Recover the amino acids of this structure.
C-alpha cells in the first residue's frame, strides 16, 4: 500500500504528515491526531476533469465530521488513485 501525505506550507517550507493508511483503507476516512492539525493543512489530488491538474483539498475544522479526545475525522472524498502521493 502506498503512503499518502497531507501537507502544510509555512514560510516557504512544506511539511508532510503521513496519513494513517490502515484506517483510511478500511473506513475511507482520514483519522488525524489533533496534535498534527494546523491551519493550511491540505491533501493534493489529481482532478477528475483534467487528470494532469493537481488541486488541493484543504482540511478545515468545519470539514471534520467527527471529533473525539485525540483525533479529527475527515471523509476522504476521492478515489485512492486520485490522491497525489509523490514524496517531493
Amino acid at each position: 500500500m502506498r503512503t499518502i501525505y497531507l501537507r502544510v506550507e509555512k514560510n516557504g517550507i512544506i511539511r508532510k504528515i503521513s496519513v494513517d493508511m490502515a484506517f483510511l483503507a478500511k473506513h475511507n476516512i482520514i483519522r488525524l491526531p489533533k496534535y498534527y492539525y494546523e491551519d493550511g493543512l491540505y491533501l493534493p489530488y489529481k482532478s477528475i476533469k483534467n487528470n494532469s491538474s493537481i488541486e488541493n483539498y484543504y482540511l478545515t475544522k468545519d470539514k471534520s465530521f467527527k471529533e473525539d479526545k485525540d483525533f479529527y475525522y475527515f471523509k476522504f472524498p476521492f478515489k485512492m488513485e486520485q490522491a497525489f502521493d509523490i514524496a517531493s
